[in-house]
Amino acid sequence: MATERTLSIIKPDATRRNLTGSINAVLEAAGLRIVAQRRVRLTQAQAEAFYAVHKERPFFRGLVEFMISGPVVVQVLEGDNAVARNREAMGATDPKKAASGTIRAQFAEDIEANSVHGSDSAENAAIEIAFFFAQVDIVG
Ligand code: GDP
């Protein structure tokens, strides 16, 4: 299996409820190693740029407002098939549809305030990691 890296974001609904450690415990139990991590307050421009692929979607404005409503924790996760492994640990976008035991089933408030972001492909992971981290910040 290939060792990969993926970008994860612990979203404002989760930082507000002090869930960073609980979410990290699920990620680590899933076999992912947190090789970089930083707590940041996104600017509107950063949130718009990060979610640019969604700019035509009806939920784009609300999503940007939500993502700047409080601090987030951006992190790089490393492990075998890290992209898919993290998506599995996260659960479905809508927490009502997320499998039990997943982060979103346990912690998400609703389809928007769903506690975590995770890259959806290796290609996007590389782009998203570079959005937040320099090589020197990532310690494998
Ligand atoms: P993800 O890859 O599972 O995070 O889902 P998407 O890439 O499709 O959507 C990005 C983010 O937009 C989601 O994690 C949610 O925070 C938000 N989102 C997605 N779909 C909806 C929706 O139908 N309504 C609202 N309000 N937000 C949504």
Could you explain the architecture of this structure?
This protein is α+β, with helices and mostly antiparallel strands and 140 residues long. Helices cover 39% and strands 20% of the residues. It contains 7 helices and 4 strands. The protein starts with a strand and ends in an 8-residue tail after the last helix. The site of guanosine-5'-diphosphate (GDP) has 9 residues, from α4. Guanosine-5'-diphosphate binds next to α4.
List the helices and strands and how they pair.
Blueprint: E1 3-10, H1 12-16, H2 20-29, E2 33-40, H3 44-50, H4 60-67, E3 72-80, H5 82-90, H6 103-107, E4 116-118, H7 122-132
Antiparallel strand pairs: 1-3, 1-4, 2-3
This protein binds guanosine-5'-diphosphate (GDP).
Derived from helix and strand composition plus strand pairing, the structural class reads alpha+beta
Q: Note poorly predicted spans.
A: none
Ends distance: 17 Å
* Helix count from the secondary structure assignment: 7
The strand count comes to 4
- In helices, the fraction of residues equals 25-40%
Strand order of the largest sheet: 2-3-1-4
Mean pLDDT: 98
Succession of helices and strands: EHHEHHEHHEH
- Quick one: biggest sheet? 4 strands, antiparallel
Strand content: 15-25%
**Can you list the ligands bound to this structure?**
guanosine-5'-diphosphate
Shape: globular
Rg estimate, integer Å: 14 Å
